[in-house]
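Input/output pair, single chain:
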Amino acid sequence: MRYLLVLLLAVVACKQTAQEPESTMDYKQIHDAAVFIDTHNDMLTKMVEDSLMLDSDLTGITHSDLSRMRTSGLDAQFFSVWSDGTLEAPFDYANRQIDSLDAVIGRNPDTMLKATNTATIQEAVAQQKLAALIGVEGGHHIENSLDKLDSLFARGVRYMTLTWNNSTAWATSATDEWEIEGARNSEGKKGLTAFGKQVVQTMNRLGMLVDVSHIGVQTFWDVMEETTKPVIASHSSALALHTHPRNLNDEQLKAIAKNNGVVQVNFYSAFIDSTFTRKHEAFMLKHQDKQDSLVAAGLNDYAVKAALYKQFPQEAEALRASFEVLMQHIYYIVDLVGVDYVGIGSDFDGISFPPQQLDDVMGYPLITKALVEKGYSQEDIHKILGGNLLRVLKANEVKL
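Output:
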């Protein structure tokens, strides 16, 4: 913990000038003084699939754009490289998304900096730039090749979620372990195969964070037995508050804390609100006729839902979790394992229903406000907003 304090002081010093004592600071000052890191944003997919530009005004279109990110107090963003498990050549598609991010950074050298470690995050903060980091969401992107894993690391990837909803040949996912009786990897069992263990070992060797979001329970325990470095859950919440395969149970949360890792809490209403599924099913049933018409017109499931949400905005708004529901997940994990093991992984631009009040990245300061009102100290708030993630990233870095 002493090292964490030194690291935090070094990075935060890049943001702070002379300021008021903590007792007189309001939440906006505490928020601005923090090094705020979000570990999961899906804008890269929208940039590639929808031809959107991060450095344009996307207000009302997306949760994020470069201007709003900077205004929100965000200091470092892990941009997620994603594709579903059915895409051919996912490794090439991952590189295409990284190319898109590199192009944005290249167009905005005065406001963005590509970061790969705590030193470059510190450099970005000192220069008042957004530190842009990369995470890969789904081990299928390496196409069962350690060489391709090495290649992605060389391009700047600093975490990999071992599975998305789809299992790989070498690791079973949370969705498959939860929903499919007899879900198996290529060795005929749940969890990691021998190759999967090599993937974890290679990530540890490289200094790439092992991300346990999305992976099955057995895969999780295999990872915790194999890893020699602290792990992250880049965008997961507490199973005790909502029974969903994407959430972590108490024993998993305790294991991450024991490992000195960090759980970055997810914003998606479907993951954090125990009433969401029931309300959503009622919404879809109410509009069954329109749903059938859209399906008949050739729209896929995602497009059908998006069209209905747009057609009935007030009803869609009512489906969103309350802001307090999100905060309860943060408080719960802090109470269970301590404030040193919690962070923020919004999933913005990869979710359709963020909590109420958190319409986009501009809502981030409300989290700080709630923590202040709950009685959290500035030091603990700074840990949650980014200090804990900095500690884990530093612990994974390889000294050359």
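The radius of gyration is 20 Å. The mean pLDDT is 94.
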